[in-house]
Design a protein that fits this description.
This protein is mainly alpha-helical. It contains three helices and two strands, in the order ααββα.
Length: 95
C-alpha cells in the first residue's frame, strides 16, 4: 500500500468523527451567551414581580399605631397592622 493511499484512507476514516465533533467553538459561545442572557432576563423579570407596585399618592398605615407601611397588592387601605404586637392590641380592643 502506498503512502498516499494510506493517507487518503486515514483521512477518510477520520472524517466521520470530525463531522460529529465538528461543532465550531464560536457557535457554542453564541449559544452559551444566548442562554445566559435568557436566564438573566428571567431572573430580572421575577425580581421585578416581587417588588410591590407603588400606587400614586396612596400610602398604607397601621390601623393601631399609624406607622407607614409598604403598599401591598392584595390588601389596600384600612384594616392592616404592622406587627404581631399591634394585631394583639387591636384584638384586645374588640373584646
Amino acid at each position: 500500500m502506498s503512502t498516499l493511499h494510506m493517507a487518503v484512507q486515514l483521512a477518510a476514516d477520520e472524517r466521520p468523527s470530525q463531522e460529529v465533533l465538528g461543532v465550531h467553538r464560536s457557535w457554542l459561545r453564541t449559544k452559551v451567551a444566548e442562554s445566559k442572557t435568557r436566564m438573566a432576563s428571567k431572573v430580572t423579570e421575577r425580581a421585578k414581580s416581587l417588588i410591590p407596585m407603588q400606587r400614586d399618592g396612596e400610602t398604607d398605615a397601621c390601623m393601631v399605631c399609624g406607622r407607614t407601611m409598604r403598599p401591598a397588592g392584595a390588601v389596600r387601605g384600612e384594616g392592616r397592622v404592622c406587627s404581631p404586637a399591634c394585631a394583639r392590641q387591636w384584638a384586645e380592643g374588640l373584646s
